[in-house]
Amino acid sequence: MEGVQKGNLLIVDDDASALESLSHIFKQEGYEVAVARSGEEAMELLRGADFHVMLVDLRMPGMDGLDLLKATKAIRPTTEVVIMTAFGTIEKAVEAMREGAYDFVTKPLRRPLVVRSVSRALEKASLQNENLRLRKELEAISHERMLIGNSPAMRKCLETIAQVAPTSATVLLQGESGTGKELAARLIHAKSERASGQFVAVNCAAIPHTLLESELFGHERGAFTGAFARKEGRFKLADKGTLFLDEVSELDLAVQPKLLRVLQEGEFERLGGTQTIKTDCRVIASSNKPLIELVRQGKFREDLFYRLNVITITLPPLRERPEDIPLLAQHFLQKFAKRNKKDVRAISREAMELLQEYSWPGNVRELENTIEHAVVLCRGDTIRAEDLPELVASEEKTRQFLTIELGTPLEEIEQEVIHQTLKMTKGNKRLAAQLLGIATRTIYRKLEGSQ
Q: Which overall architecture, per CATH, does domain 319-398 show?
């Protein structure tokens, strides 16, 4: 039964009767069991699926249990191994323990002892997997896992995130590549009631269409060539947590109805299976393409779009919030100075001007790479213009200048500078005021005086 399944167990023994007996015992105990009659067959299974525990006979023709143990630790280091050994091969079993086996049991096997040994191995494997997951999440959080910015656009995003995070609403994150959509998704998860559950991310653009259904919903053993064991999908792994569907616009049309059903009913079947599985996970999706346009083009289901589009948060491109660049640049400077053990503390005014004038087609991700480049090449304690990548520094040529004829009244010069700066900022008076070094109310006053 789905609710009582303990873990995935691989049993390896060249004795067919022993294999059948052990398989029956552990299925009764609630394990998902796969079997192999040789070390070579076991390696094929290990390459295609994760197992929490492997119970293996020490003496087998060809690849014996000790060799299989070493190979398993090389490709599946979190799989715990319990060795079965005859009384006369205890020394070999002790050697196996030194090579990383969790435990050994002697033949003839006694059911309570072997069940207890495998159970304890499963506990250790589960703890290791949980610690690994937590370490990865902590690394993800500590690795610039913050949405940084004080611009009006970013403050609006952060306010919306704070509002929607405690709810169960599906969220669609829109924005260009590199604007921080996954950071926003992680922040929503961290501020939600599901924060203690898993945050599972799937890049829909990075997984081939033929494998995406299996990744999302899982598959049964034998569902397709190479499916040697049951595999849980991301929806199951994200149960009680959050599933982040990155670049959801790349979902194949054939998979979209199944996703729609999960969003509507909270249930699905594994590929090749008939059992209906319930899942309770929050879905956050992202796209760097306008989904409504894909709907009009017939490339995305309209009903799925409306299911995803309950709450939409648009992450602004970096070029529309240049006032955030100094804060972001300083954050990345500290990060990469520490990582590269360099005493770099500041960014020169000239270098900062270049950073703020660059158009940043790659957004925050490109800025991060630029600062890392500069920190590595910096020879002193301050990043200078020559430390920046040529692509960023060369955009100095595109600076906008204003030519003023000598003798022009000062009041007219002020008006022209304000009007041209507002053109450059697309009417953003607050940003124009920051660029000119004056208060926003001064711009309003000057504009009113010219009318």
A: Orthogonal Bundle (1.10)
